[in-house]
Amino acid sequence: AALFMENARKSSIVSRANSIGSTSASSVPNTDDEDSDYHQEPYKESYKDRRRRAHTQAEQKRREAIKKGYDDLQAIVPTCEQQDFSIGSQKLSKALVLQKTIDYIQFLHKEKKKQEEEVSTLRKDMMALKIMKANYEQIVKAHQDNPDEGKNQVSDEVKFNVFQSIMDSLFQSFNASISVTSFQELSACVFSWIEEHCKPQMLQDIVIGVLHQLKSQPY
């Protein structure tokens, strides 16, 4: 009996010790889990990653700008309109857009040069007409100042025809020799034309030829 009592007491002491140890162990935090969670620092972007991201964004913007430029060219240039029905709804290639744009610019340059030449010709015509108008007004004024000069005086129509024929002959050489690009060039061309095409003998030949031509016409 004494031995039984002693064993029971020891068993009770061991049980209480185990229960205390388990309670203490349960109250202590799990250091392994804490180290894995608590000491994990947030992700920081490295300098290399930032450069890579900035380069990607810059490349994307560059491609968008190039695409917008080609779209604007295709919208502005008339020859970039889709006319080949075999292509369907496909967009024009960048190379084709550039080629059509170059062709259109060259066409505009040719049209501009052609219009400048037409304007130059019109200016020459206008200058010649002004000269003819001023001379004819002088003739008319002289006729009005002497209305009773004689019954055998030729009509104004005949005088104008003579004047017009002479001026037409002179204007052919004038138009071929005069340039109106600038006032300096115009002045030089006018004096050169006068020296070359308005010599007394040349003017006399022109007038005689016109009078002979009009002599055979009835008035």
From TrEMBL:
Cellular component annotations (GO), alphabetically ordered: cytoplasm; nucleoplasm
Basic and acidic residues compositional bias, start-end: 37-48, 56-65
Biased composition (Polar residues): 10-30
Pfam family, one: HLH
The entry's keywords: Activator, Coiled coil, Cytoplasm, DNA-binding, Nucleus, Phosphoprotein, Repressor, Transcription, Transcription regulation
GO molecular function annotations of the record: DNA-binding transcription factor activity, RNA polymerase II-specific; protein dimerization activity; RNA polymerase II cis-regulatory region sequence-specific DNA binding; RNA polymerase II-specific DNA-binding transcription factor binding
Region entry Disordered, spans: 1-65
Main location as per UniProt: cytoplasm
Entry annotated with the keyword Coiled coil: yes
Segments forming a coiled coil: 105-132
GO BP term, example: positive regulation of transcription by RNA polymerase II
UniProt keyword Repressor, yes or no: yes
InterPro entries: bHLH_dom, HLH_DNA-bd_sf, Max-like/E-box_TFs
Gene3D superfamilies hit by this protein: Helix-loop-helix DNA-binding domain
Superkingdom as given in the UniProt entry: Eukaryota
Protein's cellular compartments: Cytoplasm; Nucleus
Residue ranges of domain BHLH in the record: 50-108
Physiological role: Transcription regulator. Forms a sequence-specific DNA-binding protein complex with MAD1, MAD4, MNT, WBSCR14 and MLXIP which recognizes the core sequence 5'-CACGTG-3'. The TCFL4-MAD1, TCFL4-MAD4, TCFL4-WBSCR14 complexes are transcriptional repressors. Plays a role in transcriptional activation of glycolytic target genes. Involved in glucose-responsive gene regulation.
Description of how the protein assembles with itself and partners: Efficient DNA binding requires dimerization with another bHLH protein. Binds DNA as a heterodimer with MAD1, MAD4, MNT, WBSCR14 and MLXIP. Can also bind DNA as a homodimer.
Protein name: Max-like protein X
Source organism per UniProt: Eolophus roseicapilla (Galah cockatoo)
Protein encoded by which gene: Mlx
